[in-house]
Write a structure and sequence with these properties.
The chain is an alpha/beta fold and 733 residues long. The protein folds into four domains: 111 residues, no CATH class; 95 residues, Nucleic acid-binding proteins (OB fold (Dihydrolipoamide Acetyltransferase, E2P)); 179 residues, Rossmann fold (3-Layer(aba) Sandwich), CATH 3.40.50; 158 residues, 3-Layer(aba) Sandwich (Rossmann fold). It is 36% helix and 17% strand. The protein has 23 helices and 20 strands. It has a seven-stranded parallel sheet, sandwiched between helices. Helix 5 runs antiparallel to helix 22, helix 6 crosses helix 7 and helix 7 crosses helix 22. 39% of the residues are buried. The structure holds adenosine-5'-diphosphate and magnesium ion. Magnesium ion binds next to helix 10.
Length: 733
């Protein structure tokens, strides 16, 4: 495929070529009111679509294209398809039909091969516009009219052709034309005209946000020809759909560009972390810290855990703070890796903070850390727990212990982020389920130390493409291996979960002495939501299984009450636990082998995958039953089937991303993520990886090309122009 193309088919002045001098991107910030077709009303409407500048407009691409080239003569017209042809108007008249509100305009048009009747409904202005003898282009559908007993062209779009100029000046006909989304009262043809005018006004500029070397290496088109041809494709024999394909050269250029801009920004951020120095280092003691750590554990680390620990070790030996993202499926053993990082900091006399989104999780982490540090630490490191429930004198003592450094390790919830929580020498921060915290919150914690090391984790697997893009300023460690001995879990979407299901599927499990979770979306009956609730299901199952004890736990219960029920289940005093999603995290019950989720369509895929991770944790295989409500949509059912097909959380996440798009997937609203206009994080992952490498090469320590350095400020300026919200993009510092 050609890598450079000219776009002379729109060129207003053939003497000006596309190569010339570098122009600053400032010209692209110009407003749109200087174009003749844009008055104050249209200006306001465009603004409501978020289109203010020339640049905004250029990046509002058509969603399809229409072939309005003259391909045919009247004799060759066929029924049923949209076709365009040139003709002269022979007769035109208004006909008033009594039962119709508007008059009908009838005309006959001809070319050297024949003639055809044309009708419009309303549109009286055509009488003047298309007077006899006018040459015009007609584009529309030809249909057979039984009334006229002949082919008729109905309500075609028309454009009068200037006999001197021909099609040169027309944006709407005689070429492949773009079709734009119409909203806020801006029609596609208004948009088309504006796009054409804007492109012509920029003719001769050779601005390009991508450094020349990057363009050359990537083999992508130059900026202006690509933008022109995204709006007005050149005359080719491709089917129109091909202009929408990611390998259409202008489009692949823009896709690459979008990724390159994002990755460049991430590289710039990364660099700003690289320039800050560490506040502590690991003293060489002659032993390998990882081997010492592992020898204290009752089991060997998985290969993936070892790799992640070594990556962390490498970070801590380097001269700048760690910024690392630990990705791993449920049960892949992230906590242990975090414990290793924490232990290293503690042993050097630094403080460590472990942030978790809920108190239950914080408690669980505190328990785990106590155990692991006991086994692997050379002295006692007792974690303290800081949550909203810690108040009064206890809280005051805890805070002063943190301020003096007496408490070396704290595990906590949002309570950790408050201003009145000072540290003595905070050197290591671990954030679990990092997406539950906003940018400001993460920053609030990191500023409590001097350039602390940061390890963020997520219990929800994130597809690699997202990790590379939105968390591109972080180093990535992936735990893609589960500890040995994990049981297989079978997932089934149940068609009908009537009494029969419970008797034939669940009763035998209970008879074997195994335990069952039943998860519901609601606590109690709700008028607003048509879904099953925990209270009714609890009552139903208690009656159905009189020989087994059924328990109920919901988010509305007090902490102690909740804990008592959980404890009873843990001790096997209860056989069935009916619950809301409070059990999503922090529950580890090896004898629980089955989980039934009612109204499963009301849960997110990631959440369901999390829930699934609660069973099969002991020596017995498990079954995960998904019961959809009666009103489930076909898409909803497909989503559930993803879980049937894939056990691997990363695959589930990828499918989830593909179905919902990155915005929904990550919850854009809260994180203020940039959205791509043509790039697709699922489809274009390979391009993303190439763009990331290109950005790393281009912005690396020793740029290979002098012109890259020169273009850097232009690049940064352009990123800010394209994405005004860039400062809100995810970052952990
Ligand atoms: P997650 O990644 O979901 O946070 P955890 O850290 O909670 O996973 O680990 C899940 C379980 O696996 C814990 O009970 C933990 O003790 C155990 N575990 C972690 N690493 C290993 C290992 N290498 N071998 C055996 N069990 C392990
Ligand atoms: Mg975990």
């Amino acid at each position: 495929m050609a890598t450079t193309t000219t776009a002379d088919h729109l060129n207003p002045n053939p003497e000006i070529s596309l190569s010339g001098n570098f122009t600053s991107p400032l010209k692209l910030t110009a407003g749109l009111d200087r174009f003749p077709s844009i008055g104050p009303r249209r200006l306001a409407r465009l603004e409501r679509r978020g289109i203010r500048s020339v640049l905004d407009l250029l990046y509002t691409f058509p969603y399809r294209y229409e072939d309005r080239r003259v391909r045919i003569t009247i004799a060759g017209l066929t029924e049923g398809t949209e076709q365009g042809f040139l003709a002269e108007v022979r007769r035109i008249r208004k006909k008033v039909v009594p039962r119709l509100k508007a008059p009908i305009i009838e005309a006959e048009v001809f070319d050297h091969t024949g003639s055809i009747p044309v009708v419009w409904f309303g549109q009286e202005y055509l009488l003047k516009h298309l007077s006899e003898g006018t040459q015009a282009f007609f584009f529309g559908k030809v249909e057979y009219s039984s009334y006229a007993r002949s082919l008729v062209l109905r309500s075609p779009m028309t454009e009068v052709i200037d006999p001197e100029e021909g099609f040169r000046k027309s944006y709407h006909v005689g070429r492949i034309v773009p079709v734009y989304r119409e909203n806020e009262g801006v029609s596609s043809s208004v948009f088309r005209r504006l796009a054409g005018d804007v492109l012509r006004s920029l003719w001769g500029e050779s601005f390009d946000p991508l450094p020349p070397a990057v363009r050359r290496d990537a083999g992508v088109m130059d900026w202006f020809p690509a933008i022109v041809e995204m709006h007005f494709p050149k005359d080719t024999d491709r089917p129109m759909e091909e202009f929408l394909a990611p390998d259409y050269p202008p489009r692949s250029r823009i896709i690459f560009e979008e990724f390159f801009l994002l990755e460049s920004l991430m590289m710039m951020r990364k660099k700003s972390v690289l320039v800050s120095g560490r506040s502590w280092t690991i003293s060489e003691k002659g032993e390998s810290p990882l081997e010492t750590f592992e020898s204290g554990l009752p089991f060997p680390l998985t290969g993936a855990q070892k790799r992640a620990c070594n990556e962390i070790l490498h970070d801590l030996f380097s001269s700048h703070p760690m910024n690392r993202f630990l990705l791993g499926d449920v049960g892949s053993g992230k906590t242990l890796v975090a414990a290793f990082a924490i232990l290293l900091a503690l042993r050097e006399g630094r403080q460590a903070a472990f942030l978790a989104p809920t108190e239950i999780l914080a408690q669980q982490h505190a328990r785990t850390l106590t155990r692991v540090l006991e086994m692997t630490g050379d002295k006692r490191f007792e974690p303290v727990l800081l949550a909203q429930s810690v108040r009064g004198p206890e809280r005051r003592a805890l805070l002063s212990g943190l301020a003096t450094g007496e408490h070396a390790l704290v595990v906590g919830t949002h309570a950790l982020l408050e201003e009145g929580v000072p540290f003595h020498s905070l050197g290591m921060i671990v954030i679990d389920e990092q997406h539950k915290f906003g940018v400001a919150q993460r920053r609030a914690l990191s500023t409590k130390g001097v350039n602390p090391d940061i390890l963020v984790m997520t219990a929800t697997p994130i597809p690699r493409s997202l990790a590379l893009s939105y968390y591109g300023d972080l180093e990535l460690s992936v735990l893609d291996e589960l500890p040995p001995g994990r049981q297989t879990i079978t997932t089934r979407v149940v068609k009908n979960a009537g009494e029969d299901f419970w008797r034939s599927r669940i009763d035998p499990v209970l008879e074997k002495g195994e335990q069952v979770f039943v998860v519901l979306p609601l606590i109690e009956e709700s008028e607003a939501v048509e879904a099953k609730n925990a209270s009714d299901t609890y009552a139903f199952l208690s009656t159905l299984f009189p020989g087994h004890r059924v328990g109920l736990v919901t988010g509305r219960m007090e902490g102690e009450e909740k804990e008592a029920v959980m404890e009873a289940f843990r001790r096997r005093e209860l056989s069935v636990l009916v619950a809301t999603t409070v059990i999503e995290v922090g529950v580890d019950i090896p004898n629980a082998t089955v989980m039934v989720v009612e109204n499963a369509e009301r849960f997110g895929l990631a959440q369901l995958h999390q829930l699934r991770g609660r069973i099969g944790r002991g020596s017995l295989p498990g079954t995960f039953y998904l019961v959809p409500g009666p009103a489930i949509s076909p898409e909803g059912r497909m989503r559930l089937e993803v879980l049937e097909s894939f056990a691997d959380g990363f695959r589930v996440a990828e499918e989830d991303l593909r179905m919902r798009g990155p915005g929904e997937f990550l919850g854009v609203k809260q994180s203020g993520l940039p959205m791509f206009c043509v790039a697709d994080l699922v489809r274009d992952v390979e391009t993303l990886v190439r763009a990331r490498e290109a950005a790393a090469r281009s912005l690396g320590d020793s740029p290979q090309h002098p012109e890259d350095v020169w273009n850097l400020s232009c690049l940064e300026q352009f990123i800010r122009l394209r994405y005004s919200e860039v400062d809100n993009w995810l970052s952990i510092r």
